[in-house]
Amino acid sequence: MTLSERDQKHNWHPYTQHKLVKPAIAISRGEGALLWDEDGKEYIDAIASWWVNPYGHSNRFIADAIYKQLTSLEHVLFGGFTHEPAVLLSEQLMKILPNNQKKLFYSDNGSTAVEVALKVALQYFYNKGEKRTKIIAFENAFHGDTFAAMAASGISFFTEAFKSSLIEVVRIPVPTEGKEKESFEALEELAKTNEYAAFIFEPLVQGAAGMVMYETFALGKLMSICQENNILTIADEVMTGFGKTGLNFACNYLEVQPDMMCLSKALTGGTIPMAITTFTQELFDGFYDDDVNKALFHGHTFTANPTGCAAALASLELLQTPLIQNGIRNVNQKHLEFQQKIKEHPRVKTTRVLGVIFALEINTGNEDSYYGEFRNKLYDFFIEKGVILRPVGNIVYILPPYIISDSELEKVYEVVEEALQIV
Question: To which protein family does this belong (predicted)?
Fold first, then answer.
């Protein structure tokens, strides 16, 4: 019995209607930008395994750091205790985070990083005796699958079954080209009510919506409106963080800085689940009180896990190296060259590039559902060709490891171009 067949007996996979899909492909090993299945077939991981693996699979530098940490301290509770990897990680992150970020709260994945941020926003005003119980988010946002994060997300079929159980979130248009004024006015109207605790957003790129991009000036304007009206701002950098947009964080493009940031995915180089929510000193001080009930009563068993911190420290060190920074610039340049080549193709509706992110919208003549037949045909075609891409409806995006070779990237482009001809 194959590994794939054995998998079907007990495992329930994410975002999967098991009755409608083929058995999961069993991956046996990985190296760099490549993966191999149990039959020895090679795949180019062109989406860095859901955006978590910028430094390549089986990265020896990160693996050595994890092994070294495991031989001294694998885990200790973070309630009442601390350890060197957590202290070092906080110090190293402060060197690259926006300078208004002063405090870190550790958790274990992107959804929980967002969950922490939203809870802090709501409790911050509760602690002050102010009634601000609502959240503002973008249309078609995605912030995760835990309950508060799910409430902030705007892709309806992800949340439809739970609508009656969610916190109240009001959505404003994404300020894409031509819709900036509409977005500004919608936020200004909401701000007048003094009912909103926070505005949460994916800075500059909405990932799960299909790599929808908008301009820096528009986000800066929205954040300024929030500041003027005492609405906290939460930058969900789970996808965009650690080099994806070309800079360490998408927020580095902004003059206005958020009150909170949510980090995960590439934080540990795709090795160990870990997340961090960062805060200004003012937010931390809103919980610092003689009243124990004003504390943040939130935690995770593996909060600040030393092994995860060691992986994150190694990942941060790699991110700063010339090899990785040159890789980010190289991928961006290759994307721009491919964009010039492909954007006039008769089946291409739009293209967009930011950092290592490339997105292409295929003109199909009709509206295509998120997991519809057209998307599934594209996905199957890419897999058959040995390229891992997960289209969002009719949008194909490429977000590869920074260490991908030129020849591997060229193959990805060739397969995308071939798909336009035959799918």
Answer: Belongs to the class-III pyridoxal-phosphate-dependent aminotransferase family. BioA subfamily.
- The closest alpha carbon to 257, from 81, 44, 102, belongs to 102
Q: What is the CATH number of domain 63-319?
A: 3.40.640.10
Task: Give pLDDT tens digits for 110-124.
Answer: 999 999 999 999 999
Residues of the chain with CATH 3.90.1150.10: 3-58+322-422
User: Is residue 111 a known part of a binding site?
Assistant: yes
Q: 3 CB contacts (<8 Å, ≥6 apart)?
A: 26, 28, 38
Q: Is 50 annotated as a binding residue?
A: yes
- Max CA separation in the chain (angstroms): 67
176: annotated binding-site residue?
Answer: no
286 is in an annotated binding site: no
Is 300 a known ligand-binding residue?
A: yes
Res 371: pLDDT: 72
The CATH classification number of 3-58+322-422 equals 3.90.1150.10
Distance, in Å, from the CA atom of 175 to the CA atom of 17, rounded to the nearest integer, reads 33
Q: How is 341-403 classified by DSSP, letter by letter?
A: HHTTSTTEEEEEEETTEEEEEE--SS---TT-HHHHHHHHHHHHTTEE---BTTEEEE---TT
Residue 156 banded pLDDT, cuts 50, 70, 90: confident
Spatial distance between the Cα atoms of 127 and 295, rounded to a whole number of angstroms? 9
CA distance 261 to 284: 13
Decide: pTM greater than 0.90. Answer: yes
pLDDT band at 366 (very low <50, low <70, confident <90, very high): confident
pLDDT in tens, 258-280: 999 999 999 999 999 999 999 99
Q: How far apart are CA 57 and CA 261, in angstroms?
A: 26
Tell whether residue 299 is among the known ligand binding residues. yes
**CATH 3.40.640.10 residue spans of the chain:** 63-319
pLDDT at 367: 64
